[in-house]
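Researcher: Please predict.
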Amino acid sequence: MAKRPIFYDTETTGVKSDKDRIIEIAAYDPINDLNFVSFINPGMPIPPEATSIHHITDEMVAAGPTFKEVGQKFVEFCSDGGVLIAHNNDAFDKLFLEAEFKRAQLIIPQWEYLDSLKWARKYRPDLPKHSLQFLREVYGIPSNQAHRALDDVVVLHRIFSQMMDDLNIETALELMKQNLVLNRMPFGKHQGKALADIPRNYIRWLLDNGALDKTENAQLRQSFEKLGMLA
């Protein structure tokens, strides 16, 4: 069965998948030119700090379906060889999907995933930042309503299509399975600086504060190890 890219994004009540909830999910199937978007009633208040980012209010989701209802429809939309692509997928969207499927007692399909943030860090090490909005500017894509699910999905598709050039999704998956080594610091006060030039005392600070133990920073830790900077 041919693999089918599905670009998707979630908006949530917060950043912790074990306690926060998805309140909006959107996806785009470029093969069939189809969109999927739905609000979700999270069964909990949306914190003001979250609303200030995505502008989704309690009133907007009050009449929305539960994740169990939306999850079943999302499975149908992403079936037939779907490869789910999101920006910061491995450390955010995928974790929220898995948590919501578990809470709803739904079986999550054996989808394949691709993290476009990791792709950008791997193949555009020349850039100082790799956020979706920064990449949008780099690739000359018109501004959108940032941090709303469908708008971000549309932008992601256009960005990733340019980053992939003429590669197919199967090749992209194989390339991402290869050992990923970062060349530049992806965050913090030394963001954009070559890893080899990061001060040892800053690396020690990252270690002491547990930053390099986080799942989303696994490649960073491995890269420092390859450079012999954690010895």
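Model: The chain has ten helices and five strands.
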